[in-house]
Design a protein that fits this description.
26% helix, six-stranded antiparallel β-sheet, alpha/beta, 12 helices, Immunoglobulin-like
Length: 427
């Protein structure tokens, strides 16, 4: 069975080939879609270049009380309460039989399933509908059971948590679930999905079972323009890889308020992706508000059905950040703020990174800026190439003298006119 490994700040296949985590957020996938719809969803995400899909086994939206597409619930009842010690696996179309189908369908399309064993309201109600069914003892047993069921599938990554903080008692539950998983499955990677405006190093920086960390920069303005700083925070806290597992979703009402009249769009989600990846992330996660929820009837708050949203602009464009990273030497690669002689705040903030013989600068609004080419001192010359995040095209536009400060004017400016400047040593 092929497996993923952690090497430094990045993920690799066991044969040494780089793996770029290009995730999608499909929390309600197992709970809401039937088999035909599941096949269509994975086929589209494969076509669009995704490599991983985040989905929840015990789902957020009344996942213990509302049946799946085949009328089945995941857990049997004990004294009228859903019982994690009694998963309902009876029959060809049992709840878990359908999860099996989804995992196998994803594998057919060469996609990882990043599986949350449960959403957070099942161990820490906080908000949502629960019910709380996990304590330390049954969390261990459930972790052991679900890991045993999926340990032979190559395309599993475990994601604990589910949008909740970990206070002391909740940390014990998550530790127990992780121990249960590791008792059966020592191969697949484990990470954690944190609450909004926080990251997993806030809660699990000392957890040996954590293979990589994630942030939730979220859907408000609290962190959405500070992604570089969030990535820097995780870099300082841990030597493990990191990424953003829940940034702004395409078609999500800004700040959770549809009355504002602004829904995050493709330009917004591109900003999230390039800010994070050029800050050293091992990948990135896209989301669409109508996809995570698998919305069937559009409304003011969920403006599209999931089928309409499946091919929206942001989803179609996510592959270009992955292709940009994989096209040149993968490692070493990391932030290079010294490339920029100035920077801008908020939406205009630029991010720079360097690899072996090349560098990238992301300009989210296409504003003129100056680069310091001291990084390339000793090279014969430096090629300037524009990379278009909307279509992946590269255009050579100039040759520069190494070691000098050079004014750069992008081809266009304004919201939606984001560009990546590629600087490459002449060979």
């Amino acid at each position: 069975m092929r497996t993923l490994k952690v090497q430094g700040r990045f993920l690799y296949w066991d044969n040494g080939e780089p793996f770029f985590y290009q995730g999608d957020t499909a929390w309600e996938l197992f709970h809401a879609l039937n088999r035909e719809e599941t096949e269509r969803y994975f086929a589209e995400r494969k076509r669009q270049g995704f490599t991983a899909v985040q989905a929840v086994a015990l789902a957020e939206c009344e996942g213990l009380s509302t049946p799946n597409a085949y009328g089945r619930l995941p857990l049997c009842m004990t004294d009228g309460v859903p019982d994690p010690d009694r998963p309902d696996t009876v029959g060809e179309y049992s709840y878990w039989d359908h999860v099996d189908f989804a995992v196998e369908t994803a594998a057919k399309h060469e996609l990882f399933v990043v599986m949350l064993p449960t959403w957070g309201d099942k161990f820490h109600l906080c908000w949502g509908k629960g019910p709380v069914v996990f304590q330390e003892e049954n969390a261990y047993r459930y972790g052991k059971w679900i890991a045993n069921r999926y340990k032979e599938h190559w395309n599993i990554i475990w994601m604990l948590g589910g949008d909740r903080k970990l206070e002391e008692n909740h940390r014990r539950i998550i530790d127990a679930m992780a121990a249960g998983i590791r008792s059966e499955d020592t191969q697949h990677l484990i990470t954690f999905h944190p609450p909004g405006a926080q990251d997993s190093t806030d809660f699990l920086v000392d957890a040996a079972y954590m293979d990589f960390h994630t942030a939730q920069t979220g859907h408000t303005t609290d962190r959405c323009y500070e992604i570089e700083q969030v990535m820097q925070k995780m870099t300082a806290a841990s030597e493990k890889p990191f990424l953003d597992s829940e940034p702004r979703y395409e078609d999500h009402p800004a700040c959770f308020d549809a009355s504002i009249g602004y829904f995050w769009d493709a330009a917004d989600v591109r900003q999230n992706a390039y800010w994070a990846v050029l800050s050293g992330a091992c990948g990135h996660t896209y989301g669409n508000h109508s996809i995570w929820s698998m919305t069937r009837t559009a409304s003011d708050y969920f403006p599209y059905t999931w089928e309409q949203a499946l091919t929206h602009e942001g989803a179609e464009q996510m592959k270009w950040v992955k292709e940009l990273r994989l096209k040149r030497t993968y490692a070493p690669f990391g932030p290079a703020p010294e490339l920029l002689t100035e920077n801008f705040a908020g939406m205009g903030h630029m991010t720079a990174a360097k690899g072996s013989g090349y560098a990238y600068v992301y300009s989210p609004l296409g504003m003129p800026f100056t680069v310091d080419l001291a990084l390339f001192a000793g090279a014969k010359c430096v090629k300037g190439i524009w990379f278009n995040p909307r279509n992946g095209e590269e255009t050579l536009f100039g040759i520069f003298k190494p070691g000098e400060k050079t004014l750069i004017v992008p081809p266009g400016s304004g919201k939606g006119q984001d560009w990546v400047l590629i600087l490459e040593e002449c060979r």
